[in-house]
Amino acid sequence: MVTTRRFSQVNVFSAHALRGNPLAVVHDADGLDEETLAAFARWTNLSETTFLLTPSDDAADYRVRIFTTTGELPFAGHPTLGSAHAWLEAGGEPRHTGHVVQECGAGLVTVSTADRLAFAAPPLTRSGPLAAAQEAAVRDALRLEASQVRGMAWIDNGPGWIGVELAGADEVLAVEPDPLLTRQLQVGVIGRWPDPSTKGKDVEVRAFYGDGTGVEEDPVTGSLNAGLAQWLITSGRLPQRYVAGQGARLLRDGRVYLEQRDGQVWVGGDTFTTVSGQVRIG
C-alpha cells in the first residue's frame, strides 16, 4: 500500500549548502515494513537514510532505524545529528531541557541541543591493537609503508571502524587506497595540520568503507570521528577539544567538532534542511 510521509533531506557537518554529508529522513515511519525501508534507502542512493519511529524505550524521545544502500546499521554519526535536527524541526518536544534521547540499534544516544547539535559518542564495541597480520593488510589496502603509520587501532562503535594515524594532513589527503584490498574494510585515516589557524581545522580525516565488491569514500563521518577521538584523546595524542576537517578530496568542506568533557566524548556539527516536503513510499 502506497502512503505519503513527511520527508527531509538534511545537510550535516557543514554550515555551507551542498558541502556537508546529506541525509534522507522519513518521518512517522511506523507501519512500514523492513523491505520497504531497505528499498527506499536504495532508491535515495545516499550513504544513509533514516526512518523516525515511536520509541519502544520510555527514556527515549524518538526511535530511528538507519539504512545504507546495502543494509541496516545499529549506529552512525551523521544520521544521528541529521535525525535529531529533522525531529526537532518537525515539532518534536524533548522530555529534558538541553538534549534529546535517540533510541537506535546500539541503544540510547544523547544528543545535546546546546549551540550546535552534538551526540555523546557511544562506547566502543571493539578497541585496542590489531594483530600484526591485520595491520599489514590495512597498510597494503591503503598503499602505505610501515614508516608512514604512527598508530593503528580498532575503534569500532558499530560500523566496524579501524583507525590509522598518519604523520600529517598532507599524507592523509595523498592516500590512494587499493579498491580490491579495501573492499572488506571500514577504515579511517587521520593526520594533523601543521598550522591549524590557517585552515580552521586541526586535523584532516578520510573514511573508506567496503561493501564486499568495491570501496567508497564517505564525505563526513560522525561515527568514525567519534572513535578516532576516543582513541587519540584518551591516549594523549590529541587535545581534549579539536576540529576535524573531512571531505576535501570529494570537494566537500565538512567540519566535526570534538570535545571530551568529564570523560565523555561529544561529536558536534552544523545541520540544516536543504529539501523538505512529502514522499510517496510503500
Key terms for this structure?
globular; 5 helices; 282 residues; 18-stranded mixed β-sheet; 19% helix; alpha+beta
Main β sheet profile? 18 strands, mixed
Mean pLDDT value: 95
Structural class assignment: alpha+beta
What is the ordering of alpha helices and beta strands?
Answer: EEHEEEHEEEEHEEHEEEHEEEE
Range of strand content = 35-45%
Q: Uncertain regions: pLDDT < 50 for 5+ in a row? A: none
* Proportion of residues in helical segments: 10-25%
The total strand number stands at 18
Spatial extent as radius of gyration:
18 Å
N-to-C span: 6 Å
Name the overall outline.
globular
Number of helices: 5
What do these coordinates show?
A hairpin with a 2-residue loop joins β16 and β17. The chain has an 18-stranded mixed β-sheet that branches. It is built from five helices and 18 strands. The radius of gyration is 18 Å and the shape is globular. The N and C termini lie close together (6 Å). The protein is an alpha+beta fold and 282 residues long. α2 (77-89) packs across α5. The mean pLDDT is 95.
